[in-house]
Amino acid sequence: MEREPAAEKDTLVLQGTLTKKEFLKHGQYHMNKILNIVILLFLVFAFLNFVISSWNEEDLNNIPSYIVFALFSLVLSGLLMLVLKMITRVKTAREFKSDPLVKKEMRYIISSREIHQNVGRSDAYLEWEQIRTAHENKDMFRLYVSRGKAMVLPKRFFKSEAEMRVFRKLIRENLSRNRIKF
């Protein structure tokens, strides 16, 4: 028996098909924080490694050598960042290719009570408590239901800026502040 969502004043109906480009962008957003931390730690580690490995009393006053170490560390960190971003992109593209549901048209009915997701003949009903975190980026919203799985809602799914304001309001009313990453 199919449930009908309650007709409420602030109920949104969104629908659309996620593109590969949007899915790749979601993967980039998802990994950005981790990549930045890894790159920063590598930068510090590389710089300290160069300094410690060449440490002697003559180098204490040799500022140009530290500048060279810093630049070399930056170059290595930049290369590592490029490699990690390429790996992330390839991994996300493979995930998109292997997931048949992500390529289908999705329909969302979002109310203050629940989020109803319809994909093909499949229906899912999520209560707001099941949303771990909500993120807003310039081109999409991401509602995480686990650490690695999110509902990706491109802003083009919304008919107007007013609908996006209603969506933000629903998020603020139903999630605690520490779970909202706007």
What would the keywords be for this entry?
PH-domain like; 182 residues; four-stranded mixed beta sheet; alpha+beta; four-stranded antiparallel beta sheet
Describe the structure.
- The protein is of the alpha+beta class.
- It folds into two domains: 12-19 and 101-175, PH-domain like (Roll), CATH 2.30.29.30; 21-98, no CATH class.
- It is 46% helix and 22% strand.
- It contains three helices and eight strands; from the N terminus they run βααββββββαβ.
- The chain has helices at 20-53, 63-98, 161-174; strands spanning 12-17, 105-110, 114-119, 122-127, 133-136, 140-144, 150-154, 180-181.
- A four-stranded antiparallel sheet has the order 1-2-3-4, covered by helices on one side. Strands 7-6-5-8 form a four-stranded mixed sheet, with helices on one face.
- Helix 1 packs antiparallel against helix 2.
Describe what is shown at a glance:
Helix content is 46%, strand content 22%.
pLDDT < 50 stretches: none
Global mean pLDDT: 88
Q: Main sheet, how many strands, which sense, barrel?
A: 4 strands, antiparallel
CATH architecture of the largest domain: Roll
Total of domains? 2
Strand line-up in the sheet with most strands? 1-2-3-4
Class by helix and strand content?
alpha+beta
Helix-strand sequence: EHHEEEEEEHE
Shape type = elongated
For the secondary structure, the number of strands is 8
- The radius of gyration over CA amounts to 23 Å
**Portion in helices:** 40-55%
Break the fold down into its secondary structure elements and pairings.
Blueprint: E1 12-17, H1 20-53, H2 63-98, E2 105-110, E3 114-119, E4 122-127, E5 133-136, E6 140-144, E7 150-154, H3 161-174, E8 180-181
Parallel strand pairs: 5-8
Antiparallel strand pairs: 1-2, 2-3, 3-4, 5-6, 6-7
Helix pairs in contact: 1-2
